[in-house]
Amino acid sequence: MKWLLALALCAFTTPALAQNTLKIAITGPFSGGSAPMGTSMRDGAKLAIAEINAAGGVQVGAKKLKIEAIERDDEAKNERGALIGQELAAMSDLSGVIGSVNTGVVLAGDKHLQAKGITRIITPAAGSASMTQWAKSDGPKDLFVFRFAAHDGIQAAMVVEEAIARKLTKVAIFADATNYGASGRDDLVDQIKKQGGKLQVVATEKWAIGDKDMSAQLLKAKALGAQAILIWGIGPELAAIANGMAKLGYKAPLIGGWPLSMSNFIDNAKANSDGAIMPQTFIEEPITARSKSFIDAYHKAYNTTRIPSPVSAAQGYDAVLLFAAAVKQAGSTDSKAIRDALEDLKEPVEGVIATWKKPYAKWNPADVTTHEAFRREQVVMGLVKGGRVVFANDTDRQRLAKRDAK
Predict the structure, then answer these.
(1) What are phi and psi of 145, to 5 degrees?
(2) Quick one: pLDDT at residue 127?
(3) pTM of the predicted protein model
(4) Chosen CATH of 153-280+381-405 out of 3.40.190.10, 2.10.70.10, 3.40.50.300, 3.40.50.2300
(5) Burial zone of 202 (CB within 10 Å; 0-12 exposed, 13-18 middle, 19+ buried)
(6) Average pLDDT, the chain
(7) Any idea of the CA torsion for 154, 156, 158, 164, to the nearest 10 degrees?
(8) Closest CA to 80 of 50, 131, 136, 38
(9) Which of 278, 257, 245 lies closest to 384, judged by CA?
């Protein structure tokens, strides 16, 4: 009889327990070449969750709910992304999903979340196709997918502007053979056209994930007089290119997407990474009280003196804050209500990157930026120097340092 009583008690208590948590999933590559991004994002998100839970949780109506997070490692594999998307879409008590890095993983998995109406905030990356896939005549009128990253249009424009500002005339475009690389390559070509064709692309080269020798591509770019390499890729292959350039005596700057700031580029390229320049949404310098608090908390929690991918960590942190604010405004754990709140956040959200004021708007398939949080003013250029990423321009440091004084 005792076991019957215990079973009966479980039947009554389990639903109550479920109602006292806000369940979200954190997904990303926690292993493999993209791991510095995935793990940093996850750990930044977990910092925000820990802080929210320590304060009692998220206010939902008359009570506060603790956040319960589940983690899924997609290994940067498209097929894993599809399986995880299906698994999460089948969870009836899941309020939302935060994370993912690789474009192909997002393309494979997000369709399942969209079909089930589960709100997803993509961070810290995924290429343009992760959002533009929905912007078509037969696309959804109501979209549950948001992105919290500097989209490729912003980054590509800044990369091209940097090359022009250096008075370069000939460049090579290098991109990896993933969806992300192809998307970035196309954005670079588009931006070169938009900015008056001041740059001549003398070579367009690609590499496969796992390639360790890019000598052929580099020799071609060098022979054709490329004064810089505009580069788009993820993973340690970026270091193989920097090391290959040093071996060939090819002295040209690497100007590219934000993954040039990752630890597996800097650590594997060592001194050869110095001078690489890329757009950044967060730089690991304690220039404000808010950034210092975040950096110190991350270092202490994860026993490190350098965040593997500061951009990813900060975006994971702020993405959780935005999601929690939407839950509070909605007064519900229902994913559709949270989606509606994200599209019209009433109160500013004080993040580590910025104070977010209405970062999203009602989905408009003719304007994907309605579900893109970042604008140009929230992105700066970073420079690899002495094994760390620093501000490339002191004016950006000074501008962002004034934030606490406002």
Answers:
(1) -105, 130
(2) 84
(3) 0.91
(4) 3.40.50.2300
(5) middle
(6) 93
(7) -150
(8) 38
(9) 278
Question: Can 2-150+288-374 and 153-280+381-405 be said to share one CATH topology?
Answer: yes
Q: Where are the domains of the chain?
A: 2-150+288-374, 153-280+381-405
DSSP-derived letter for residue 59 is: E
| SS3 of residue 168 by DSSP | coil
Q: Which CATH code is given to the segment(s) 2-150+288-374?
A: 3.40.50.2300
Q: Within a 13 Å sphere around the CA of 259, how many CA atoms are in the beta-carbon half?
A: 30
Alpha-helix residue ranges (DSSP H) falling in 166-288:
179-194, 215-223, 237-248, 263-269
In this structure, how many other beta carbons lie within 10 angstroms of the beta carbon of residue 129?
A: 18
Structure confidence at residue 6 as a pLDDT band (50, 70, 90): very low
Band (7; pLDDT cuts 50, 70, 90): very low
CA–CA distance, 154 with 144 (Å, rounded to integer): 23
Query: Once rounded to an integer, what is the mean pLDDT over residues 286-310?
Result: 97
